[in-house]
Amino acid sequence: MPKQGDEPVRDTIDAINHVHATTLALEARASSGESGAYIVRDAAGARFILKFGRGREFEPARAAQVTAALRALGYPAPAYVIVGETGGTRYAAQQMLAGELLRHSTLSPARLEAIVALNRIQRGRAVEPGADWLRELGQSILEGFEEYCRVDSLRNYSPKTRRMLDRFERIAEAAGDAPCPVSDVVHWDFHGGNILVEGDRVSGVIDWDGLRFGDASFDLMTLLFYSYRDEHVRHALWNEARAHSSEPMLRLYLAHVIIRQLDWSICNHSRYVHDFFTGFASDLMRTYLSDD
Question: Any bridge partners for residue 89, and if so which?
Fold first, then answer.
């Protein structure tokens, strides 16, 4: 049910209804994810996911274009039914897809095979080459970003995270200008909280608003990080990514994902949760990111 404090959300919905002649009403905050998403319902009872934002990480118009092309190829991405902007705030209402979140389930061999097949669909589907792909990945490790993936949080948190950051900087320097694909669609946040399954079928991949054009192996490395404890899964994801991308680039992608998660945990989670992810990342680093 809507709660007190949802007035700004209702105001945005009112503006959307006025511009698009729709009848959306707030039903509830979406339970998944750690950023703002809301379930809305129209007068006919159809339900949608509504998201909105101002930062450069939220680009629903581009997501609508790219996911429409992926859906035409059989990719289970949601349809964007309303996209627009009001008062400097961009918004998007998306189709609700069926299924349960993968993070509450198991990545079985059949599901893993389906995910790899979807990742292959993403390859070569960029609207334009990702001219800033390598620069952005290098920046995320050597300088950090403003709103997330902030390296200062790792530098200041503890001697252990500072040593980890030193290692990541060496990985970024070693990657240099290593060749890699730049014409793939990259989801950019490809983990179990954004993957829906029904049985052995992947029924949906959601949250495309921050997508990039670059190397789709980045998505496999993101999933590898969060699936690291399953040895079969991590080996399969690594081998699939290695068939398309160089090892220095895969290490660069893993370094980025670790910084992103540790920074988020430092800023938003308890020390217990952060320490869990730090230990988790340390295990992964011993396998894939050890000093040569």
Answer: 86
Q: What's the burial of 195, exposed, middle or buried (CB within 10 Å: 0-12/13-18/19+)?
A: buried
Do residue 166 and residue 21 come from a single domain?
no
Residues 76, 174: one domain? no
In whole angstroms, give the CA distance from residue 274 to residue 262. 7
SS3 category, 6 = coil
pLDDT in tens, 213-254: 999 999 999 999 999 999 999 999 999 999 999 999 999 999
Q: What is the pLDDT of residues 59-82, one digit of tens each?
A: 999 999 999 999 999 999 999 999
Dist CA 118 CA 115 (whole Å): 5
d(CA 94, CA 127): 21
Indicate whether 169 and 120 sit together in one domain: yes
Closest CA to 57 of 263, 215, 208, 216: 208
